[in-house]
Amino acid sequence: MDIKNSPLSLDMAALIRGLKAGRALRGLRSVAVQSTLSPQCNNVRRGFHRAALLRLASDSKSDTSVPPPSYHEVHTAGESSSSSAQGESSEGAQSNTSFQDQSGEHGEDYETEEQLQARILTAALEFVPQYGWTVETIAAGAETLGLSSASTGMFNNGAGDLVLHFIAQCNAQLAETLAEQNNLVQLGQAESKKTAEFLKDAVEMRLRMLIPYIDSWPQAMSILLLPHNIPDSLKHLSTLVDDIWYYAGDRSTDVNWYTRRAALTGIYNTTELVMVQDSSPDFEETWAFLDNRIKDVVNMANTAKQVQATGEAVVQGLMGAAITLKNLTGMNQRR
Amino acid sequence: MHRFFRPRRMLRDAKQPLLWTAGQLCLNHKPVVACVRGYIVLPPTNDEEEKAMLHRMMRVDHAGEYGANQIYAGQMAVLGQTQISPLIQEMWDQEKQHLSKFNEILAENRVRPTLLLPLWNIAGFALGAGSALLGKEGAMACTVAVEESISEHYNSQIRTLMEKDPEKYTKLLQLIKEFRDDEMEHHDTGLEHDAESVPGYQLMKAIIQAGCKAAIYVSERL
Q1: Which residues have CB under 8 Å from B46's CB, separation 6+?
Q2: What are the angstrom distances between the C-alpha of A103 and each of A9, A32, A298?
Q3: Quick one: pLDDT at residue A77?
Q4: How many CB atoms lie within 10 A of CB B90?
Q5: Which of A160, B76, B173, B196 falls between 20 and 30 A from A51, CA-CA?
Q6: Would you give per-residue pLDDT tens digits along chain A (335 residues)?
Q7: Is the pLDDT confidence value at B214 over 90?
């Protein structure tokens, strides 16, 4: 479990690791070739991959008993904050040549490009308070993993990739937590919450994930508003809102499906905006704002129901009056 | 690079069989809602394209049954006090059953309903009421046209599923075949009750069927 850097002497172990890395490299190159980039970028990226993996091979350690990051771990990052991920991934980088069976259809010898990118981005999150949501952050993250800072060339979208990765990670974390809570409720070990309370808690939980990065979050929001990022950020937002409503118990299959999600999207977005300029201790004002917005929506829903009921009653009254009139004038007889 | 993740995608290995027993919490943390019959209709899948295809199919079927429900409601609103009303009511009840089954499937599988449901609500009611104003024959002609369109649509779905993988989609195929048989029965009932004797039958049928095709096309996408 010794993690010190070994000197670059070519002993047998290092040779074997080099061979393994070479095999991994071939595999990775085939993955890289299949991606859809321009030819020059492809060549550049191939160079980066070679450079990255050669560095990995030379720095690799022989016996770490740290389990290599499985696909599961990398992509859901359920429990990893950025710092623990960084610590784990630097160890994991040393032994990424063997994966558990759960790593999917790509075999055991290497990780896919996507997994590598995910690891780099997760590691980069630690540097966001320092460098903001920029390419420098990604470079710093790559360096933590022992890769060259030029591996930022892998990310066509630059800072956009980092922000979207962070959002996806947060959403996945939230969905996992909500699923666990749902399990407990289903098993009878916890009480189910009322809808308003559930929504409030879910949105608060999700927004609290922004707290470590709240100072630079306006920059991230503006990155998400760039035209080429809008489709992806909207998809993430709709996934988030759909998950929250699903676990809140919404099973509607009519137009309510849309109105509820639209309402929650509005609530989430406005609360996020309030949060970035909130300076109260522990963001109390934000949660109060959230509470009020949810109350508004619940009120509106109740009012809508009342209006509908009243409307139906009025219609019935009118029909009754019409039939009475027809009876009085003798028009209602069967011919 | 970033992924749109939900917990059910955590284990992506297609080679690992997904444990799926009704009533058990499956691997993807989604609570399994035991439906009335106790089995799952849509096969669980991790393939994005397949999921999109199945969702699209369920979405348009749900919209179809919703529209049919409204058509019969419109017909009953006009012809509710006549001799034909028990027949229309019976057909309407079967459509209600179909609709509730699709509601169940949509809720279980988190399928988005089509955005145009309010439109089908109004259009279906208007079509049913409008055709019923032409009398009992008009209502029957409308039924014949619509049920023929729906049967054709279900048949093409059955064909698609059979081409892909009949064993995997057994339950789904069973369901669609059952519904298709019901719709054919309605179609035949309509013919039995003088649908063809309405003036302008061919024209009416053509217009209604064109409308149905357009509705199906749009509901699949929107």
Answers
A1: B9, B12, B14, B18
A2: 32, 18, 44
A3: 43
A4: 12
A5: A160
A6: 454 455 555 556 656 565 555 555 555 554 444 444 444 545 555 555 555 555 554 444 444 444 444 444 444 444 444 444 444 444 444 444 444 445 455 555 677 888 889 999 999 999 999 999 999 999 999 999 888 888 888 888 889 999 999 999 999 999 999 999 999 998 988 888 889 999 999 999 999 999 999 999 999 999 999 999 999 999 999 999 999 999 999 999 999 999 999 999 999 999 999 999 999 999 999 999 999 999 999 898 899 899 999 999 999 999 999 999 988 888 766 65
A7: yes
Taking the C-alpha atoms of residue B204 and residue A271, their distance in angstroms, rounded to an integer, is 53
Distances (CA, A) of A266 to A250, A259, A273, A275, B131: 17, 11, 11, 14, 42
- If DSSP codes are grouped into helix, strand and coil, which group holds residue B44? coil
The set of residues, in sequence order, having a beta carbon less than 8 Å from that of A32 and lying 6+ positions away, is: A42, A45, A46, A49, A113
All residues of chain A having their beta carbon less than 8 Å from the beta carbon of residue B1 are: 114, 117-118, 121, 155, 157, 161, 164-165
Residue A104 touches partner B, C-beta closer than 8 Å? yes
Contacts of A103 in chain B (CB under 8 A): 13
Distance CA B201, CA B191 (A): 11
Give which of A169, A157, A178, A294 is closest to A244, Cα–Cα: A178
Whether the complex's predicted ipTM surpasses the cut of 0.85: no
Q: Pick the residue of A106, A133, A167, A253 with the most B CBs within 10 A to test the interface with B by mutation.
A: A253
Cα distance between residue A169 and residue A76, in whole Å: 6
Q: Which of residues 136-155 of B touch A (CB under 8 A)?
A: none
- Residue of chain B whose Cα is closest to the Cα of A238: B4
Contact A186 B11 (CB under 8 A): no
Question: Å from B63 to nearest chain A CA?
Answer: 10
- Contacts of residue A62, defined as CB under 8 A and 6 or more positions apart, other chains included, come to A13
CA angle A155, A160, A165 (to 5 degrees): 85
Helix axes A159-186, A230-248, angle to 10 degrees: 10
* Nearest by CB: A104 against B3, B7, B12: B12
pLDDT value of position A15? 60
Q: What is the CA radius of gyration of chain A?
A: 27
Q: Is the pTM for the entire model greater than 0.90?
A: no
Q: Which has more pLDDT, B180 or A31?
A: B180
Is B90 annotated to bind a ligand? Reply is no
Query: Quick check: A35 contacting B, CB < 8 Å?
Result: no
Nearest-CA residue of chain A relative to B100? A253
Counting one residue from chain A and one from chain B, the pairs whose CB atoms sit within 8 A come to 88
Q: Is B98 annotated as a binding residue?
A: yes
From CA A159, how far away is CA A136, in angstroms rounded? 9
CB atoms within 10 A of CB B85: 16
Q: What is the pLDDT of residue A35?
A: 44
